[in-house]
Amino acid sequence: MDAGSPSTRRDEALSDLAHVEAVRELVSRARGLVILTGAGVSADSGIPTFRSAGGLWGRHRPEDLATPEAFARDPRTVWAWYEERRRGILRSTPNPGHRAIARALLHRDDVTLVTQNVDGLHHRALTEVAADQRAGSDAGTRSGGALPRVLELHGNLLRSRCSECGAVDAQYREVDAQSIATLPRCVSCDGLMRPDVVWFGELLDQGVLASAFEAASASEVCVVVGTSAVVYPAAGIPLATLEAGGSLIQVNYEVTPLTTLCNCSLRGRSADLLPALFEAAREGSDAF
Ligand code: BV8
Ligand code: ZN
Q1: Whose CA is nearest to atom 64 of ligand 1?
Q2: Atom nearest to 117 CA in ligand 1
Q3: Hey, which residues are catalytic here?
Q4: Percent with pLDDT over 90 in the chain
Q5: Is 0.70 surpassed by the pTM of this model?
Q6: Could you tell me the distance, in angstroms and rounded to a whole number, from the CA of residue 119 to the centre of ligand 2?
Q7: Three-state SS at 222
C-alpha cells in the first residue's frame, strides 16, 4: 500500500492480520512515525474504554464526572469513580499491543508516542521491554540510556494534584472516598487533591500538546490505535500528519471519523495487530 495521494486515500477496510503485510512496509520505512493511542489499546489489558460497548461513558455521563465543575460540586463521588478506575489500573498489566509499541519506540529514535490514556501502561511496557532487552531476552537494538518519552496528553490517573496550589504527588496513594473528610489533602497548603488528569473544558499541557503536533507534522506516517477520534484537540493530531503530506494508518475494530481519511484501516484488536505491524522491531531488523 503506497503512501498514496488523496485520490488513493480510502477506507480499505483490510481485515485483520491477513492484510497487515500491506502496511508493514509503509510503517517500517517511514521517515518519522507518530503513534496516537486511545483507550482501545488498553482494552486488552481489561481496562474499560469510554465509548465502545460497555465503556465507562455508557454507565456515566462525562459531564457528571470528568469536569472541574463536577469535582467542585461533588468531590467525593468523583474521587470514588476515579479510585475504582485507579485500582483497576493497578491490577492490570501491559498487553502485547503496548509491548509492540514499546519495542518500536526502543528500536528507532524517530518514533513518537502520543497517548490520550491516563493509565500509564505505555510507560510500564517501555520499562519492562527495556529491561528484557538489557537482559537479552528480547531482541532490539537500544541498550541502556533513558527511556523514550511518552506524551501523555490527558495526564496520569495514578498521580494526584492539589486543586489549590497545583502541587503534584507522583506516588499512588489509596483514596478513601467514604466521606469528604477522608479525601486526600495537599501536604503544602491543605487544599483538596484531585486526580492529575485533564478534564473536559480544561486546557491540556501546552508544551506536551505542541510536542505532539510538532511530531505529527514531521512524521511520514501516523498510526492511530484504539481511539474513537471524537475528543479534541487530540483527534486533530493525525490530521496534522495528513496536512503535511503524510499517511494515516488506523488500527481499530470499528469505523471512526478518521476511517475515510486513512490510507488503510486495519480492522481488529490492537493486541493482535500491533505485534505483527511492528514485527521488524521485534526481530531487530535494520528495516525498521
Ligand atoms: C479543551 C481524562 C479547551 C479524564 C479525557 C466540539 C469540537 C471540538 C472540541 C469540543 C467540542 N465540544 C467540546 C469540546 C472540547 C472537548 C471535546 O473534545 N469534547 C468532545 C467529547 C466533543 N475537549 C476538551 O474539553 C479538552 N479541552 O478542549 O479545552 C479550552 C479552551 C479554553 C479554555 C479552557 C479549555 C479536554 C479533553 C480531555 C478530556 N479528558 N480523559 C479521564 O480519563 O477520566 S478524555 C477521554 O476520552 C479519555 O482520555 C480517552 O482516552 C479519551 C478519548 O477517548 P478514546 O481514547 O478514543 O476512547 P473511546 O472509548 O472513545 O474509544 C475507544 C476506541 O477503541 C473505539 O473506537 C473502539 O472501537 C476501539 N477499541 C476498543 N477496543 C479495542 C479497540 N480498538 C482496537 N483494539 C481493541 N481491543
Ligand atoms: Zn496545595
Answers
A1: 227
A2: 51
A3: 154
A4: 72
A5: yes
A6: 24
A7: strand
